[in-house]
Design a protein that fits this description.
By secondary structure, this protein is an alpha+beta fold. It folds into four domains: 245 residues, Immunoglobulin-like, CATH 2.60.40.1760; 250 residues, Alpha-Beta Barrel (TIM Barrel); 80 residues, Golgi alpha-mannosidase II (Immunoglobulin-like); 160 residues, Golgi alpha-mannosidase II (Immunoglobulin-like). The chain contains 15 helices and 49 strands. The strands form eight sheets. Strands 6, 7, 8, 9, 10, 11, 12, 14, 18 and 19 form a ten-stranded antiparallel beta sheet that branches. Strands 1, 2, 3, 4, 5, 13, 16, 17 and 20 form a nine-stranded antiparallel beta sheet that branches. Strands 31-30-28-27-23-22-21-32 form an eight-stranded parallel beta sheet. The chain binds 2-acetamido-2-deoxy-beta-D-glucopyranose (8 copies). It holds the Pfam family Gal_mutarotas_2. This is Glucosidase II subunit alpha. InterPro entries: Gal_mutarotase_sf_dom (IPR011013), GH (IPR017853), Glyco_hydro_31_C (IPR048395), Glyco_hydro_31_N_dom (IPR025887), Glyco_hydro_31_TIM (IPR000322), Glyco_hydro_b (IPR013780). It is found in: Endoplasmic reticulum.
Length: 878
């Protein structure tokens, strides 16, 4: 118990600490020296375009850059990579640390044809519709798409590149003309639209352990993704500032442009200009550089139950039994630090978790999975082999005097694995071969990896490592701080894949950097049980999604504090629509598994969970599409409707894919909610929370709500795949039938997609899957299959629900290959504005056609008395 008291004290301490606002401001860091930019025109920042130095070829432009106040000539390089992104690298002749691990792969230069003008002032580089004009003096680069100016690098000539031993900061400003908003640069507890920071602190990217964080804030949090989008009615683009050292960003927004001034503590100027010209394209250009998330297992999209901490293996199995008893689905149980033997990771408490394999097998019997925590700090205990080995082999992060760094964390005095050292990383990955961790039913949570250090004795305590520590190849911690935790997840993924090469691993991480989506999901850390934290969870995850990380969620109920009943229910309802859905709570708050609540509350939580599970086929399809295209799984409204001025800042609503709009209730005691529906008058949205009532996409609508409500709208023109039977787990639904919700638009048309595979393995990468395009047009539903892929799913489509259905349908004719069958059970429901067809069994593997026929003259006579309810039974499909 001593340890828990210790964590509790630390939580309290941190909360106090936050209240007195001790996180560093710009003027307490290097930022102070450069925030007031060097002023403009008279500065000498010059590219050397003389023939003896300038190198132009079909892959790059290279030359020297002279910067006033910098003691040496810098190397300048421009190339085009990825999806037409301009890459500029400015570095010393001895290269600084480059965070190329954030990139998906080595990016080959694309073909360019650079041209210099006669008087050596300008080099023009064209690539497709894009163009960069590189000016020699003062140095600046203008980027154009189709001859429209998109952005200007070093617009104000404030470039900084310090080369003194102790002052190595760099800075540059980018102007984005003709835009109205800036988004991106997570992680901050802030709105989708970035604030103007002129009279505020700049946005800070510096991974820190900051619980119960302040909202609407530019303060640093657990993760750092230095991609910023400039977005407007007419054009959008972005900048990816690839730098893992502490970074501050001043954002200046005016009605018609955005200026972003990036300041980093170290590293080269390593920048990728995303050319848009839409936000959607800019996001895909970013994921072209940093990759997409590999398709997760199906279960990961179900509900996760966690707590700091479940204290014994019996407790874990009894929680599962209670979920079953109360008919509440749950897929995953989580173990926080107390499962270990005295916080020694890769061990199990010898009494309370004495049979980890049994626990894992027991969970497997009911289709449940286990996630266990592994932190990066290693207890300094001479009887702990991971410590003695790491010390002996030099796997730890070191002090400047080359001794092993140690300080306090959960286990007491600890040291930190240097995941940047390939040998240490390999050693760490192999630890997953240990007992329990080599089981196919375990998945991993990497926490405290900012890294968090309980070093309140340090003079400038920010609960993380001192910046002068030493990593592999003599890199200072300062150079790599924001990418340290990222490297832990790389090792975790390697370890899990070694154990089970054909099983998709699931990893959750708190610290993150650009590219993390290739390794792990994230959550928004130690939030708090209040409405402000529920509200901010949407923009936080929307921003992460635009920055490549779709697999994001917030602790349901709030980690710290005690949610009242209303907040608790609302959080389950809203959380069901973020990609990662986990209930979690702190050690010092009362238990709050949903079955502990009164039946009315429990029923609403059950409905929320059911809604989540019903839409798993949709979530899974969206994750697959993300993997292929880089499109985020959740999107702000403006992503699809950039022309709608009123939608530019909407971040209390979410689009799950293009077709489902969710407006969860995020405030207490309300009986109506204003919901923005985009697309104009001709775009209809069906409120599935209220009898599929149709609304025009003409802007704000007032929706009446009660405690049961979560306004969710399906877009007319779309087809949504679902599985509507409530089961204890997602795995239990594998064989359950699909229902297709066919949402007809004003021209009686709709389309959609459905992806299925074995939900667990990598066989889908060997074409073992089905990707089905569904099209409804002229009263006929037809399917198209992705060529070359085959899979034989056990589930069929057994229900079609047509919203806003054509009238007088009496007969349904199914054709696939040479088979055909007629009719089945049809039921109109006028109150719900739908036609339901059941008693069918459509094989997904075959291209099919289903024709819906209106009554002919004969059937009018025969069926006129049926009015709206017409049932034709007993003609089952083959
Ligand atoms: C540039 O030219 C060289 C020599 O002709 C060729 O090998 C290389 O593939 C070209 N690079 C690109 C990106 O086209
Ligand atoms: C260089 O030539 C360009 C036209 O190509 C002209 O606009 C510019 O003024 C000239 N600059 C100098 C310094 O002569
Ligand atoms: C850019 O110009 C090309 C060629 O004129 C045209 O095909 C393309 O549609 C234009 N793109 C945009 C975004 O305007
Ligand atoms: C940038 O330069 C322009 C033109 O010199 C000036 O008007 C503007 O105030 C500068 N902006 C900043 C943020 O320094
Ligand atoms: C897991 O590791 C333990 C300890 O090395 C070993 O006894 C067990 O057989 C391993 N299990 C699997 C499934 O490899
Ligand atoms: C209806 O939906 C179809 C397919 O989704 C689309 O092609 C068509 O343009 C839509 N019609 C209207 C009026 O929105
Ligand atoms: C579905 O219709 C939309 C227009 O509503 C269109 O943009 C999209 O490409 C269509 N998708 C398929 C798979 O036909
Ligand atoms: C139904 O009857 C109308 C007029 O009585 C006729 O014009 C039409 O062709 C008939 N339709 C069918 C399908 O027999």
């Amino acid at each position: 118990m001593a340890m828990h008291i210790q964590k509790f004290k630390v939580i309290l301490f941190i909360s106090l600490f936050v209240c007195v606002n001790s996180w560093k401001s710009c003027h307490e860091t290097f930022c102070d020296r450069i925030r007031a930019r060097p002023q403009g025109g008279s500065r000498n920042v010059k590219l050397d375009f003389s023939n003896s130095v300038l190198k132009l070829n079909n892959e790059s432009v290279q030359t020297n850059l002279n910067v006033e106040g910098t003691s040496q000539n810098l190397k300048f390089k421009l190339e085009v990579v990825g999806d037409s992104s301009f890459h500029i690298l400015i570095d010393e002749s001895t290269p600084r640390y480059r965070a190329n691990k954030a990139l998906n792969e080595v990016l080959p230069p694309l073909k360019i044809d650079p041209k210099k003008n006669n008087n050596n002032t300008l080099v023009t580089v064209t690539h497709g519709n894009n163009k960069a004009l590189i000016y020699s003096s003062p140095f600046k680069v203008e980027f154009y798409n189709n001859n429209t100016l998109i952005s200007i690098a070093n617009w104000n000539n404030s470039l900084i590149f310090k080369t003194d031993t102790n002052q190595r900061e760099i800075a540059l400003d980018i102007l984005f003309p003709n835009v109205q908003r800036a988004y991106g640069i997570p992680e901050h507890a802030d709105r989708l639209t970035l604030q103007n920071t002129v009279s505020n602190q700049p946005y800070r990217l510096f991974n820190v352990d900051y619980g119960n964080y302040r909202v609407d804030s530019t303060e640093a949090l657990y993760g750092s993704i230095p991609v910023l989008y400039a977005h407007g009615i007419e054009q959008s683009s972005g900048i990816f500032w690839l730098n893992p050292s502490q970074t501050w960003i001043d954002v200046t927004t005016s009605p018609d442009d955005v200026d972003a001034y990036f300041m980093s503590e170290d590293g080269p100027l390593d920048m990728y200009f995303l050319m848009g010209p839409t936000l959607q394209q800019a996001v895909m250009q970013y994921t072209k550089l940093t990759g997409t998330a590999p398709l997760p297992q199906y279960f990961t999209l179900g509900y996760h139950q966690s707590r700091y901490s479940y204290m014994s293996q019996d407790e874990v199995t009894s929680i599962v039994s209670s979920f079953d008893e109360y008919n509440l689905p749950v897929d995953v149980l989580w173990l926080d630090i107390d499962y270990t033997d005295e916080k020694k990771y890769f061990t199990w408490d010898p009494k309370r978790f004495k049979e980890p394999e049994k626990l894992l097998n027991d969970l497997k019997k009911t289709n449940r999975k286990l996630v266990a925590i592994i932190d990066p700090h290693i207890k300094n205990d001479e009887n702990y082999d991971i410590h003695t080995t790491s010390k002996r082999e030099g796997y730890y992060v070191k002090n400047p005097d080359n001794t092993v760094y140690s300080d306090k964390c959960w286990p007491g005095i600890s040291s930190w694995l240097d995941f940047l050292n390939p040998r240490a990383l390999d050693y760490y990955a192999n630890l997953y071969a240990r007992r329990g961790f080599n089981h196919s039913n375990i998945h991993i949570w990497n926490d405290m990896n900012e890294p968090a250090v309980f070093n309140d004795h340090e003079p400038s305590f920010e609960k993380t490592m001192p910046l002068n520590l030493i990593h592999h190849e003599n890199r200072k911690h300062r150079e790599v701080h924001n990418i340290y935790g990222f490297y832990q997840t790389v090792g975790t993924q390697t370890g899990l894949l070694k154990n089970n090469p054909n099983l998709r691993p699931f990893i959750l991480t708190r610290s993150h950097f650009a590219g993390i989506q290739r390794y792990a999901a994230i959550w928004t850390g130690d939030n708090y049980a209040n409405w402000a934290h529920l509200r901010i969870s949407l923009p936080m995850c929307l921003t992460e999604a635009l920055a490549g990380v779709s697999f994001c969620g917030a602790d349901v109920g709030g980690f710290g504090g005690i949610p009242d009943d209303e907040l608790y229910q609302r959080w389950y309802q809203a959380g069901a629509w973020l990609p990662f859905y986990r209930g979690h709570s702190a050690i010092d708050v009362p238990r709050r598994e949903p079955y502990l609540y009164a039946e009315g509350i429990q029923a609403r939580v059950r409905t929320a969970l059911h809604q989540r599970y019903a839409h798993l086929p949709l979530w899974y399809t969206l994750f697959r599409e993300h993997e292929l295209t880089g499109e985020p799984v959740i999107r702000p409204i403006t992503y699809h409707y950039p022309k709608e001025v009123d939608a530019l800042s909407i971040d209390n609503q979410i689009l799950a894919g293009p077709n489902v709009l969710v407006a969860p209730i995020l405030e207490p005691s309300i009986s109506s909610k204003k919901v923005y529906l985009p697309g104009g008058k001709s775009q209809i949205w069906y409120n599935i929370d209220d009898n599929n009532k149709a609304f025009e996409g003409s802007g704000y609508h007032t929706i009446n709500v009660n405690l049961n409500s979560t306004p969710v709208f399906y877009r007319a023109g779309s087809i949504i795949p679902r599985k509507d039977i409530l089961r204890p787990t997602s795995t239990g639904t594998y064989k359950d039938p699909f229902s297709l919700y066919i949402c007809l638009n004003s021209t009686g048309e709709a389309n959609g997609t459905l992806y299925v595979d074995d939900y667990e393995s990598f066989q889908y990468r060997k074409n073992q899957f089905l990707y089905i395009t569904l099209i409804f047009s002229e009263n006929t539903l037809s399917s198209q299959l992705k060529d070359g892929a085959t899979y034989s799913p056990s589930a069929k489509i057994e229900q079609l629900i047509i919203l806003n259905p054509p009238k007088d349908i009496v007969e349904v004719k199914y054709t696939a290959d040479k088979e055909s069958a007629t009719a089945t059970s049809l039921q109109y429901n006028s109150e719900k504005n739908l036609l339901s067809i059941t008693g069918i069994a459509i094989d997904l593997q075959k291209k099919f056609q289903i024709e819906f026929s209106k009554k002919n003259n004969a059937t009018i006579v025969k069926l006129s008395s049926w009015m709206l309810v017409i049932i034709i039974t007993n003609l089952m499909f083959l």
